[in-house]
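hey can u run this one w/ heme C bound, need the C-alpha cells asap thx
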Amino acid sequence: MKSKGLLWLTFGALSLVGAACAFNSTGETIPADWEQTSYLERGHYLVNYLGHCAGCHTPLGPNGQSDMSLFLSGVPAKFAGAKAGPPQIAGFAGPRGARVYAKNLTPDSETGIGRWTEDQFVHTFKHGIRPDGIKYAVSPMEWNVYANMKEEDVRAMYRYLRTVKPISNKAPANIPPK
Ligand code: HEC
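ok here u go:
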C-alpha cells in the first residue's frame, strides 16, 4: 500500500514538471543556468562527452584503451608508414592509397596547436582549412559536419584544449590519394 502511494506521489510530481514545461511559452526546457556554464566547462563537455575527440586523437595503450598520459597528442610519430593496425596507429585508409592521421591537439607549440590562434582554430573547424592553407578533404574528421557547430562552441573547445597537457609528438603527415 505504502509503495503504491509513493508511486502516485512520484507520478504526481512528474506531471507537475510536465505541466510546467507545457506552459512554458518558449518551449524552453534547458535548465536556466545552462548558459552560465563557463566556456571551459562547455569545451570540456564538447571535447570529452560529445565530440569524443580522444577516440581518434589519443594513442592507445597496451590494453587497447586510450592512453590518457598521451591525451589528444595524435598518432605517434613512430608509427608513420605503418600499414596495419587501428587508426590510432596506421591512420585511416582512404581511396587510392590515401591515409589520414589524427593530429596533435595539445598546446605544444612545435607539434601541436600551441601557436594556433583562436580564430585560426575556428577557421579550421568551419572550413577544414588549416592556418598554413592546407585544405582537408572530407575525412573521418568530418569537417563538413563540424562546420555546422556554433562558433561559440568551437571557441569553447579551443579554450578547453589550451588547458590540456602539452605533449611533443609530430603526428604523421597525411598521404594524399595517388
Ligand atoms: C573519427 C576520428 C576523429 C574524431 C572523432 C575527431 N577527429 Fe580531429 N582529426 C582526425 C583526422 C584523421 C584528422 C586529420 C585531418 C584530416 O585528414 O582531415 C584530424 C584533424 C583535426 C584537426 C586539425 C589539426 C591539424 O594539425 O591539422 C583538429 C583541430 C581536430 N582534428 C580537432 C578535433 C576535435 C576538437 C575533435 C572532437 C570534437 C576531433 N578532432 C574529433 C580524426 C578525428
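Residues 6-22 have pLDDT under 50 and may be disordered. anyway lmk if its weird
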